[in-house]
Write a structure and sequence with these properties.
Length: 206
């Protein structure tokens, strides 16, 4: 039995182990950098100071290959929520996944909407979905270090809010399910961006 594929309970146990040891085992290149991880030859990603016109970078981040999700990861849509004081984003929407040796067809590893367009001064409120199966924890972490970080929360956990006052692209991810650096995977090895759980808030410059 020990050699058999992980069951759903095994997936949950593996993710729980990741959650408990996240600070010790992640290989995070952001350490010592004020601007967070960047691709070679790229400009630093300041907190929200990525040019509004650089849509290509938005797509490169949200649609980067995810280990356990069939491409495209992101459908390219940018949901218009301009002129709203508060915008809701759900953490833990179901997405189709395929993990070798693990019998899961879907998992709550997506933000909804994945990319949203807002006006300066808008507060985004991330709400953790309830009643999801398997009940995986998630967090909301800005790609730019120090911009915002919700901490890991379970389904139905307390909402997290951040007010976006300055125009630009604000890119973020779930450490456990969409990290841009290597994390332990449910298979027992390590992987980058396992489930493509990434999001973006684009604040208009108008």
């Amino acid at each position: 039995m020990a050699a058999r594929a992980l069951t759903r309970r095994g997936v949950l146990a593996a993710v729980a182990a990741v959650s408990g040891a996240v600070g010790a085992v992640l290989t995070d290149p952001r350490s010592g950098s004020a601007d967070g991880p960047t691709r070679s030859g790229d400009e630093p990603l300041g907190c929200g100071r990525t040019s509004y016109a650089r849509r290509r970078r938005l797509g490169a981040f949200l649609n980067e290959t995810a280990a356990f999700v069939e491409p495209p990861v992101w459908d390219g849509s940018l949901v218009d929520r301009t002129d709203q004081e508060t915008v809701e984003v759900t953490v833990g929407e179901a997405r189709a996944v395929s993990v070798p040796g693990v019998g899961l067809a879907t998992a709550p590893v997506a933000f909804d909407p994945a990319a949203v367009l807002v006006s300066p001064g808008t507060t985004v409120r991330w709400t953790w979905a309830e009643g999801v199966d398997p009940a995986l924890p998630s967090d909301v972490v800005a790609l730019s270090v120090g911009c915002f970080d919700s901490g890991v929360r379970p389904p139905g956990g307390e909402p997290f809010t951040h007010t976006f006052r300055t125009w630009g692209h604000y890119l973020y991810y779930s450490t456990l399910h969409g990290a841009p650096y290597r994390v332990p995977s449910v298979r027992g090895d390590s992987v980058t961006n396992p489930f493509g759980m990434r999001g973006a808030v684009v604040v208009t410059g108008v």
